[in-house]
């Protein structure tokens, strides 16, 4: 007898489709399937056929036609008509075919009625045609009951996409605390936008998005912060149409590795934005007559400045390969290796002097930020109105300073940057073909970040402005009544008003330094939650403002109780005292009680597109527990990882192993 696989959940189906397409919507005819709700998924069509055709039961003995054989998704993945090249190619388009066993799992999911969740603790019949000639019954056991002692592991997929699928805010993270996989996804997204430059009329291409800043940017008054919040959002939407899991990161330039008091001695810019060669770069260079044996030690080494890179190349294989055509091929290789690097950027280079002496600005420090956050009026913080216009202090420093710091002065320029009074004449704009090779090979006097007209063409622009937006959000939390004067002003070229921008979360994001997500699944109670140790990066452990444990999408629970949170104490239980050093905090649950209505009364209704009713009071919610003090104690004592233990205690002060349900748990660090 054949053994049937456990049925998938809707989320697992989406994950399979995202994995096989590498998050590229064009692989499914422009459908971002992994961003859809189940209802959107079931209502979609592909090639004139229903994406998924679920057989609807009419009686105990008959059903409407449907199932996998009538579903465009399965036909396409198998390469069957009309996806057999007769009308369309096999799905996913332009990608490798899905494994047969994975297609079989999706077929079984459709045969089960395309459920939201995998069947939990119930029997279901595997269809005769799906697996064998026998009728097979499979029992699916809730994992929380089957192995109550199992430790939950960190999610290894795209955290932001997981959160979005569950109706939560995506997270903009600290670029110095992101994983290499997250950075690579960001690089891929920017590379896709650059590729769209081949279609000049495509509004999504990078140059057209950058051109908005050139033509419409707002500085020096109260529209500065609202306008740039919208600008960041608009770019992020273009990116997420390609890579739904990618958000724009922020650069906290006051972190210790940047040595704000002596910035020339620090990292200069984030490593993610620096120039480097990959192993794949060497064959390309060799094909153009450049000796590569001596370059192998340089592979992977990060260079903040291209002058440092070419000095290293000269020392490795000879100075003759640092000029002319050879130099251009190196620039090609660096751009291919890291789309976040930009050759018209000369960070921290000011004719051999410091930024203080040459520009009369100083690199922003943590003390500068504290003083700016202590301001109380929006005019002082963010800028004055048209009746009383003035630069806000945030606009001047750090914003202006970081533009100058990252733009810098090219020490190898063909023409000198000139005296201070003439410096802006040296930023060439007219006649340029941005992001064309001829422009990227040029040697201008100043980096593009030095001018409002060219700054947005350098990808470093975005992480600086995301940090400015983050600082504004932090100031808003401290000063909720601090508002611009003219809230009805329209932020051209869009139709947003200043008022529309005041609540950051309505744009679908929040700021975290770093996050660790542990999926659980709300289908069955969590008898006991203990996580595996979560490795916390030194850049996170070294400095964070607060730490939170979050319980995600907890449904309305029938009974009241408490959830105590312990860190690095897997054996904690109801008898563990709350004065224990590893006790981190607790949350209280106010139970719903027995349902007072008829069948379905307490169920959360499926919201339609035009549902104007307020959200159900039974809708799942998130819980947050501040664990800052406990996390700091552990890190100060030498811990490099955190394991989370949740102890659920009922009203009788005994452990309640059948109460808590939740979709997941996360550990979040905030700047």
Automatic annotation (TrEMBL):
Pfam families (UniProt xref): Tyrosinase
InterPro entries per the UniProt record, alphabetical: Di-copper_centre_dom_sf (IPR008922), Tyrosinase/Hemocyanin (IPR050316), Tyrosinase_Cu-bd (IPR002227)
Keyword annotations: Copper, Metal-binding
Domain of life assignment: Bacteria
Molecular function GO labels: metal ion binding; oxidoreductase activity
PROSITE patterns named in the record: TYROSINASE_1, TYROSINASE_2
Protein name (Swiss-Prot/TrEMBL): Tyrosinase
The organism of origin for this protein: Granulicella pectinivorans
